[in-house]
Amino acid sequence: TVGFWRHLDDFRVRRMVRPIVVSCYKASLTEDGSTIKEFRFGNDTDVTSSCHALAETADAGNPEEAKWFLTFANGTLDLRTLQLEPFSPDHGTTHHLAVDLQLTDECPAPLLRVITTCYGIDAIDRVRAFLRWCLDLSMPWEIIFYFLGGSRSGKGILLELAESLFPQEFTSALKDPSQLADADKICQFVQGKRLLTFPEVKPNAGRDRDWSMLLQLASHSRVSSRRMRASESTNATHDIRCVLAGVDVPDLGKDSTQGLSQRARYMRTLPRRGEPDPSLKDDLIGDTADHASICGQVIGWALAMDRAEAIAALDDPEYRQQRVELQAFTDPISLF
Question: At a CB cut-off of 8 Å and minimum separation 6, what does 19 contact?
Fold first, then answer.
C-alpha cells in the first residue's frame, strides 16, 4: 500500500481499457452445439464511452476534505490535529512525501545556517511559512514566491529545498513562465504535479512575454490541458504551487506586471560576503540517509508552525516593502 491515489491520464487509461473492451463478446450456440463468438465492442467510440463510464463510476472523492491530509512513508498526517493516521483511501490524497515525518519546533541546523547566511535570522518565520505553503494545500492561493539575488548568492537553495521535499514525479521546472503557452504544455508540466519552479528567470528577455497562465495557476483557477495531438481536453483546477528565482524582476507587459505584483512574495538575499560556501547546500540537500532524515525534520518543522501564524507570515510587512521598492524600480515613469 502506497497510501495515496495515483493520477492516470486519459491516454494511459484508454490503453488499459482497450484490450478488455475488445475481448468482450456474446457467445451463441448453433444447432450442432458449437459456439459462435459475436463481438459487440472494440471500436474507438466504444473505448471512449467505456472510459467515461469508468470515470463516472469511480468515486471522485472530496477535494475539500483531501486538502487536510498529507501522506508520508510512516503514515498520513491530519493537518488539523497534527496526528499521524494509518493509510486509508478515504483520505483522498493524490500524492505522497517519501520520507518519515518528524514533527519538531526546532529549525534543523543545516537549514538555520542557510537562513542566517543568505537572508538573515529575521526571515526565519517567512521561510517556515514558505515551506508550509509549498506542502499544505489548505494554505492560501493567489501567491507566487519569487527569490531574488545576485549570482551565487544562495537565492536558489530554498527553491531547490522545496523541490527536494517532493518525489521527482510531482515537480516540474521550466526556464520562463511564458513557456506555459497552451494546453499541451499544461498537460506536460502541470497536470498531476505539486510544485512548478523557474530557477533562473531572465530579467530582460522581452516585454512581450505572456505570464497569464502562471497567474491563473497561482490563483487556483481552472486551466485547460490536452495531451499532444489529442482531440479532447480537460478543464481542471491544478493543485500546484509556483516558485521563481532570478537576479531581478523582469520587465513585462502591463497586465503581467500588475498580476505578478498582486501575487508575488519577494525574498531578496543578503549581499554576498567572500566566496560562496558550497557546504550550505550540500549539508541540506542530497541523496543520503542523513539527508532524508533532514528532509523529514524540515517538513515537520514547517508543518508544526501554527496555521494562523503561517498565514500571517505570508503577509509579512517585509513583503509589502519589497513590492513597493520593486514597483518604483520597474515603473517607467519613476525610472525616467
Answer: none
**Nearest by Cα to 268 from 184, 171, 154:** 154
Of 310, 309, 7, 297, whose CA–CA distance to 161 is shortest? 297
Q: 336 falls in which pLDDT band (50, 70, 90)? A: very low
Contact 99, 75 (CB under 8 A): no
Neighbouring residues of 125: CB distance < 8 A, sequence distance ≥ 6: 305, 309, 313, 316
CA distances from 34 to 89, 221, 307 (A): 46, 59, 71
Distances (CA, A) of 333 to 117, 200, 239: 35, 27, 38
Contact 111, 128 (CB under 8 A): no
Q: What residue has cell string 491530509?
A: 69
Q: How far apart are CA 250 and CA 305, in angstroms?
A: 33
Neighbours of 133 (CB within 10 A): 23
Q: What is the pLDDT of residues 67-80, one digit of tens each?
A: 899 999 999 999 99
C-alpha grid cell, residue 241: 504551487
Neighbours of 258 (CB within 10 A): 13
Q: Which three cell numbers stand for residue 320?
A: 509589502
SS3 (DSSP) at 322? helix
Residue 159, helix vs strand vs coil: helix
d(CA 200, CA 156): 8
Evaluate whether 267 touches 148 at the Cβ level (below 8 Å): yes
Check: pTM over 0.90? Answer yes or no. no
Give 128's strand partners.
Answer: none
Total Cβ atoms within 10 A of residue 194: 22
Record the cell numbers describing residue 212, joined without a space: 497569464
Is 219 in a helix, a strand, or coil? coil
